[in-house]
Amino acid sequence: MFEIPKDKNRFTHIKTLSIIIITCLLLGLIALFFGKNALSNSSSNSPSALTEANQQPMLVTVSGYGKLVPKIQRGINTISSGHIVEVLQQPGNVVNEGDVILKLNNPKLLRAMETSELALLEAQSNLTLITAESRQALDDQQGKMRLAKVRLALAQAELSAHEKLKQNQVISVLDLHKAQVAWEQENAILQMETSRLETLQQTRKAINDSAQYRLEKAQKQRELLVSEVDQLAISASMDGMLTELANDLDIGRYLDEGQIVGMIADLSQYYARINITANDAEFVTPGLPARVAIKGIDIVGNVTRVEPTVNNGSVEIDISFNGDLPSSVRPNIDVNAVIEIASHQKTLVIKRPIGVIRGHRQYPLFVLNEELEQFEMRQVSIGDIAGEQAQVIAGLHQGERLLLQVPPHLQNSVQFSQGALHE
């Protein structure tokens, strides 16, 4: 017997039709959802949207972003040159003053330090020798002076005796003259020896000073070389965090003197370095209050510096804090800031019309004349702008309404009726 085949085409057709219907329903729901959002977003900018001038508070702020910067930062420099033998710290490590960050090796410097030690010993020995020679030379000269004084005293006694004998006519004038000449000779010898002592003192002092200077030079050279050897161990100059370390500090790499290898930051005090637009910077001055969001916590502060130059359309400002910061803060974390430009307790405010971009300017706006049921162009002075709010300085009164957006076909008009909006 033969089986009658089932009609599979019918079931396939029903399944395909069901998928198409479900897809169309989903697309309709998506279109309806986005259509409502687009309608709600465009309603404020539709040609018939109005805004009313009302007295209310208004806070004018400027927003920016940036980083936390430690108030005290110190660079880590190499004082001595050498090859890297060990890197002991990495960025992010908290260090204490004196902690070694990396070590260098310089055999030539070590040999020079050993040589300087020998030179220092030689200078010390030379000073000792010269001091002894000076003392001996001065002692000898002082002995000669004492001898000359004794001989002068003897000559003086002989001269006095000869003068008395001459008075008694015992000796001749010639004998007295010889005694006077002998006294003058001994006196001249004493004067000469005294002069030699003064000259010798000056000479030996100069020799001693020279030896002393050579010793001090050797000592200073030794101290410098010892310091340079000590600086082969590059250490932290203060307590803080190692925020930066050069990327190419490989073992064996040679570092020159004065090369910057890292940065240490003091963790006790910070300020915020914020970037704002050049247009906003026009209204920011030092002393303005500010709020900085740090890890979800608003910290109050004040603007302390405004960079005078513009860089890529932005300006840097610094904000110092009035209170304590969270203990979890770290250098260079991202922060957001809001600077209060102005705070109006009660002022005339409107929703910002299309085309009103910059504050403190006059704009031609279309104000509704309720009696004539028409819009009339009027020059309105706008003050501060805060987001979608604009402060009115002049040209509007409380309760007056104006167009947020003028249709293209009416932009060249001076006045037009309400009905013209929908033509």
Q: What does this protein look like?
A:
The chain has 423 residues and is an alpha+beta fold. It has 5 domains: 9-41; 50-56 and 346-422, conserved putative lor/sdh protein from methanococcus maripaludis s2 fold; 64-70 and 269-344, Efflux pump adaptor protein, beta barrel domain (Elongation Factor Tu (Ef-tu), domain 3, Beta Barrel), CATH 2.40.30.170; 73-106 and 232-264, OB fold (Dihydrolipoamide Acetyltransferase, E2P) (Beta Barrel), CATH 2.40.50.100; 108-230. Helices cover 38% and strands 33% of the residues. It contains 4 helices and 20 strands. The strands form 4 sheets. Strands 2-11-14-13-12-15 form a 6-stranded antiparallel barrel. α2 (107-167) runs antiparallel to α3. The chain is elongated and about 165 Å long.
Percent range for helical residues? 25-40%
Low-confidence stretches: 1-9, 33-45
Separation of termini?
A: 79 Å
Radius of gyration, rounded? 50 Å
What's the structural domain tally?
A: 5
Shape: elongated
Helical segment tally? 4
Quote the average pLDDT.
Answer: 86
Major sheet:
6 strands, antiparallel, barrel
Question: Class by helix and strand content?
Answer: alpha+beta
